[in-house]
Write a structure and sequence with these properties.
It contains 15 helices and 17 strands. It is an alpha/beta fold and 459 residues long. Strand 8, helix 5 and strand 9 form a beta-alpha-beta unit. Helix 9 crosses helix 11. The longest helix is centred in the C-terminal third of the chain and has 18 residues. The protein binds zinc ion. Zinc ion binds next to loops.
Amino acid sequence: MSDTTSTIVIENCAIATVDDERREIADGHLVISDRRITAVGEGAAPSEATDKAIRRIDAAGRLATPGLINCHHHLYQWATRGYAQDATLFEWLVALYPVWQHIDDAVVAAAARAGLASLARSGCTTTTDHHYIFPRHAGDLLAVEIDAARAIGVRFHPCRGAMDLGQSAGGLPPDDVVEDRDAILTACAEAIDRHHDPEPGARVRIALAPTSPFSVTGELMAETAELARRRGVRLHTHLAETDDEERFCLERFGVRPLQYLDDLGWLGEDVWLAHCVHLDEAETQRMGATGTGVAHCPTSNGRLGAGIAPVPALLAAGAPVGLGVDGAASNECGELVDELRAAMVLARAARGPRALTARQALEMATRHGARCLGRDDELGHLSVGAMADIALWDLDEVGFAGIADPVAALVFGPTRAVDTLLVGGEVIVQAGELRTADPVTLAAELRRESGRMAEAAPA
Ligand SMILES: [Zn+2]
């Protein structure tokens, strides 16, 4: 690890700053000092920076972008991939709840390390995670995930998820995987006390995240919102993912999913919602008017056949729309850079070639993601004063050679690993290789724990 108080210079690269002016530089430099960006500009770095630099990165042939931000994930699902391959969301959940009921701290540790490593190798510097299954005697699953994020080196916003509406009360999950409401609220408060860092430059911040309208009571939703606002943390949940969910809400609550959340006081700038596939025009406007964020998960929506979210309309309405890989059991992989391409092609498949540009896809994965997580003051753009969370993409290799526009090469071009990744000035990926963990060890751990989960699966 580099000394984070020292100066690092990155030079000779193209730069897509995604800053307030959306500045793009064909050949420029970045200077980092004390974990933050202190200069970004054209040509060579100033000599006062290069003179004192302890590290100079020659990034010729690379594109520098802000580190990508992942707004929705379920890391534990890395241990349960390949199940219910042709199922709807509800069928898939019903098949997997009895498997997930057997997770413990060893499963979550192996899955989180593997999932976070894949995110880092795909250019992600900040990720959230939505963990909502807490079997009794499974260990401290939130702490295990936070340890994994510290080890891999990414910034982490874990969401304390929860389910309190079991089958016997009309919910979708079996009663064995739901928790008592008071126990959930106590655990949420404890998670904030123990792990939430409100300071600038924070590596770990907690959000609260009851899972979905069909697995949580309205009482828990309302009490969680009250707790989050009293403690100054953000709110997250799944919403409007499928037609089945819409039917569930109409039958049980007499309103569509977004109205249900609105009635519970759940829309606002401190809230971001995963999916939002099934929103009508008025609901899209309501998202924008309230500044409620969206975690758009195009690959997962495609894998489960959920539909295509109205991303262009949400952006036009002014809602922040970040990108998410979603859980690995409904994506089957978890490489964030792939979601830029998926978001673009899915929007265009639904609404034509001008529905979403390559630059809009990059903004979603950076600036918009930072807004969803409440970090846009210091994450999601390469500006002086922002955290030095930077991805360098190698556009010299044959897959990209000949594409003159580097942003187009990144978003339209082939799948690739990031070349170099810095989080707060620390280099965690170098020459495409993770420096903080051994991928062979991660794979062996994941195989072992996935095998244990398969043994627990009902025949
Ligand atoms: Zn999800």
